[in-house]
Amino acid sequence: MPTLTAAAVRKQIAAGATDAVYLLAGDDDIEKSALAGEFSDLVEEDLRAFNVERIHAGDWTSGDRLADGVAAVIAAARTLPMMAPRRVVTVLQAEGVLVPRRESEAATRALEALESLLKDPERQTTLVFVAGTVDKRSRMYKLLQRQATIVECGAIADQADAERWVRTRIAAGGAEIDPAAARLLVTRAGVDVRRLRGEVDRLLLYTLGQKRIGVEDARAIAGPAALLDDWALTNAIEAGQAGEALRQLALMLDAGTPPEKILGQLGWLVRAKFPQLSPAEVRRAIDALFRTDQDLKRSAGDPRVLLERLVVELCTPKR
């Protein structure tokens, strides 16, 4: 079965075309909780009391409790929906079910019963396991890889998904954020979840006590714009666009990219592309690279200025 992003699963939910079994895993607990709650959208609000069931597996610490809990999951999953096309059963803290803390005869029987359900799931039920750390070597996880759709919560697919992630995170912090403010934050931070998490945490601290977060709040704490395309600098140089190349260089430096890494990327460009782009300028470009490398090593100037001079020189030849 496939591994999907949270954004892809949301599209399935919106279309009402979900798979039979899901495993929501990953270290982003807020994302997992939010996505698990959205499965209830498969059922009309008035009918959710009959067709949406949440089961907590955190206290299934003995073989007997595990057996009783698994029996409850199977019964809930096998129950036909009432006045609705689909039923949703969510098992929270499911790591205790997938990898029991204690082995016993009762636990073994319970897992065998759960395996039978996973191999032949009820097609009118969407069964969702929400787990923390799962041993990917375990027998149950390997079965889920074959029978379930696995969702790694924490990865962000695109800008729209990142904006939704920001809104969810802010809501979990007890506030609301204007759409334009969320957009600004994502535009600056990009779709890197680690940087986004840091920006949101700083924003919540900066606006502590506020119920509504606006664009000015986001602008006050947002870091420099993120480089959304790692090769935008070299692409601009290839096109001979000095202004755009300098802008991309500034973005890379402001984002914390080491000058040595940028120089290495420019070295690759000269070696791989310049013989076709501008054969007569290869020797001059290599000399400029060597000079800049030596100047950086000797601290013979501000690294930003040295790299800016190099970029302009590489953009100079007529393409």
Describe it for me?
The chain is an alpha/beta fold. The chain has three domains: 3-152, P-loop containing nucleotide triphosphate hydrolases (Rossmann fold, 3-Layer(aba) Sandwich); 159-221, Helicase, Ruva Protein, domain 3; 232-315. It is 57% helix and 10% strand. Helix 6 runs parallel beside helix 7 (139-147). The longest helix is centred in the first third of the chain and has 16 residues, at 63-78. The chain is elongated, with a radius of gyration of 26 Å.
Layout of SSEs?
Elements: E1 3-4, H1 6-15, E2 21-25, H2 29-38, H3 48-51, E3 52-56, H4 63-78, E4 87-92, H5 95-98, H6 105-119, E5 125-130, H7 139-147, E6 149-152, H8 159-172, E7 176-177, H9 179-189, H10 193-206, E8 212-213, H11 215-221, H12 232-238, H13 242-254, H14 259-272, H15 274-277, H16 282-297, H17 303-315
Parallel strand pairs: 1-6, 2-5, 2-6, 3-4, 4-5, 7-8
Helix pairs in contact: 4-6, 6-7, 8-9, 8-10, 9-11, 12-13, 13-17, 14-16, 14-17, 16-17
Instruction: Return the CATH class of the largest domain.
Output: Alpha Beta
Order the strands across the largest sheet as they lie in space: 1-6-2-5-4-3
User: What composes the largest sheet?
Assistant: 6 strands, parallel
What is the string of helix and strand elements?
EHEHHEHEHHEHEHEHHEHHHHHHH
Give the total of domains.
3
Fraction of residues in β-strands? 5-15%
Choose one word for the global shape: elongated
From the N-terminal CA to the C-terminal CA, the straight-line distance is: 48 Å
What Rg do the Cα atoms give?
Answer: 26 Å
Say how many strands there are: 8
Runs in which pLDDT lies below 50 for 5 or more consecutive residues are none
Average of per-residue pLDDT values:
87
Q: Please, how many helices?
A: 17
CATH topology description of the largest domain: Rossmann fold
Secondary structure category: alpha/beta
CATH H-tier superfamily of the largest domain: P-loop containing nucleotide triphosphate hydrolases
Specify the CATH architecture of the largest domain.
Answer: 3-Layer(aba) Sandwich
Helical proportion, percent range: 55-70%
